[in-house]
Amino acid sequence: MSTRAAGIVASQVILKNNSVLGLATGSTPEGMYRELVKLNQERTVDFSGVITFNLDEYIGLPPGHPQSYHHYMHHHFFNHINVAPQNIHIPQGQAGNMAETCLEYDQKIADAGGIDLQVLGIGANGHIGFNEPHTYLKMQTHLIDLTEETVEANSRFFDTAEEVPRQAVTMGMGSIMQARRILLLASGKNKAPAIKETVSGKITTAVPASFLQLHREVILILDKEAASLMMELDQRFHIPGLWHRDVS
Ligand code: F6R
After folding, report:
1. Residues lining ligand 1, CB < 6 A?
2. For the domain that residue 138 is a member of, what is the CATH number?
3. How confident is the model at residue 235 (pLDDT cuts 50, 70, 90)?
């Protein structure tokens, strides 16, 4: 999965050296970043012209906190590649004026010309970025209360329950849906229901990833477990051909 995903990101950057990449954190893309670091170090891919925008950040964690997404991105990726520091953008989880900072973040994405390739993971509850299931979704970058399910899922990275952040700042559905291409990665059985709903369920704010059905170019890279319910479905009816499916 990681090699395939890294290959797609690398070819995007090789074809357009000033690509704008939307990036995700979490366990799923760690291997992809490892592969991209190798490709950069062996000079197959040059990140010097690339501009990056991360999807999200926890509220309340300083950038140096080992569980902050700032730290994650530098630790797994940015510290090891030749990206220009001024081209890295990660939402601020400790901004004084959150509303203004969110507006500025969207403006920077627009000024960069929008996102060429957006890498996504998916929550077991169908969240993308931290756009959580709700009665409505937001277009712009915004502050969000994490659901109990997400707080619980994230608690594996923290020593005590009290430390787990309950809020995050996330890119909204707008910047994600406006990305020219989307690369969604998922592995493990616990992601199978969310993947099934994403691919063939109703388009609903209860499963934010289901909106990806409206996108022109989504590449799914799944392991067999995450794809298991989708493959059952596939035997019964045809899943829209616009989706590139790559089950390894
Ligand atoms: C992270 C993000 C989240 C994760 C999702 C899956 O930047 O936006 O949507 O992609 O929570 O996380 P993992 O990969 O840890 O299962």
Report:
1. 24-28, 55-56, 121-123, 127-130
2. 3.40.50.1360
3. low
